[in-house]
Hints:
Number of helices: 11
Distance between the termini: 37 Å
Helix content: 55-70%
Radius of gyration: 23 Å
Largest sheet: 3 strands, antiparallel
Strand content: under 5%
Order of helices and strands: HHHHHEEEHHHHHH
Structural class: mainly alpha
Shape: globular
Oligomer: single chain
Amino acid sequence: LLSEGITTKFDIPFYVIVMAAAAIGLGTFFGGWRIIKTMAVKITQLKPYQGFAAETGGATILAVLAHAGIPASTTHGISGAIMGAGSVRRLTAVRWGIGKRIVWAWIITIPASAGMSFAVMWIVSRIPPKWLEMGAVWIYGFGVALLIAVAIFGLIKKGARRWLNVGVVIQPSEIMKIAMPLMLAWYFQKREGIQNTWDYAVAAIILAIPVFLIARQPDLGTALLVFAAGLYVIILAGLPWKWILPVIVLGVVGILLLIIFGSTICAQDVVWPFVHNYQKRSEEHTSELQSRETI
């Protein structure tokens, strides 16, 4: 915002804070379990007092580095602290092979991400905006058509129908991560200066169609990402806050209810029709953990 001259001082707008916090919170809520499982179980088995020691040690190091003005990664700090806390018991208590893979991932991720981002940005910057505008509807329509094809004769793997064999196996839901914001941006650009309440209703329908098709595969994670990508465009197009705040309140209440009643709604005898493919059932039991993650 500052570099583009939109604002003359470094003052982060409230909606940016809300969207950033929502993105971080949703990412942790839906994907945090895998990270926790790796850090607290796969690297080493942490007891509560070891977890306390690791958190305290990691926080102390980060505080010292921040005070000294040295940039540091919280992920690196806490990972090293967990390995240190586990190795106090005995060195063999830490699975150093996993730690080695994590370190290599750190080393490779930064240059790989930078290179990929540079390549994508360079290619996109060479595409005339008019081409993107003309292609928005076609890309969106093509993506929705592929999602319908997945629903009819898509490949089923691990209980989910997400893939399509067109000579090579593809996952069409990934297309919508780009197509959704592009389509909504095209729509609101066409309605600029004359948009009204009904335009937001049309935008909601444009957003709801692929989100529903992706969610019923089921692929709730990708559905949420596509929903968020489209929702942010609608908000930035001028969606009134009086419509946004009730949804935020309902979302917070819903998450709290899921946390409070999680043991009940994920019990072995409870089957959720919408996500039944994720509830790995056998003749004797249901995977409660899988059900809880899904809900």
